[in-house]
Design a protein that fits this description.
Blueprint (H helix, E strand, L loop, with lengths): L1 H6 L5 E6 L4 E5 L6 H4 L5 E7 L3 E3 L4 E6 L5 E6 L4 E5 L12 E3 L6 E2 L4 E5 L1 H6 L6 E5 L2 H4 E6 L4 E2 L4 E7 L1
Antiparallel strand pairs: 1-14, 2-3, 2-13, 3-11, 4-10, 5-6, 5-9, 6-7, 7-11, 8-10, 12-14
Amino acid sequence: MIDKIFKSKKEFVKEQIYSPLTGEIIPLENVPDPVFAGKMMGEGVAIIPEEGMLVSPVEGEVIQVFHTKHAIGIRSISGLEILIHIGLETVELNGEGFDVRIAKGQKVKVGDPLVNFDISFLKSKNKEIITPIIITNYSEKVDGIVQVKSGVISKEDMLFMCNIK
């Protein structure tokens, strides 16, 4: 009987999400956009980038490259769907200032280059550079996030860990 109780205890599979950028981490609630701040697209964090190089935060497959080059979707090997949205209102630039380095369907590893972007250009167009990193299928796939880093982070440092359902 005691064995059954202990065997029924749920064991979590964990997945580490690494920083796709070098910069300052801010809570999603502090992003000046109600859709991201209200977590309507999912759970995550945002980073104010110090340099214009975005790399893969996980091992997985690119599932979406927006035609305006400002956002990338990746499915991790455990099935997390991660949206990285470079800046706010950057869709209006129609790809100007962005150099996409990958294609839909491409397999990626942590640290693989995804997009280079020109921070000075974005600022000159009065665009906010805060970059949300969102798990869009959070409610169906994740049973909790542990943020392991705050403040300034370098790309490829562990950002947070997810308990996978």
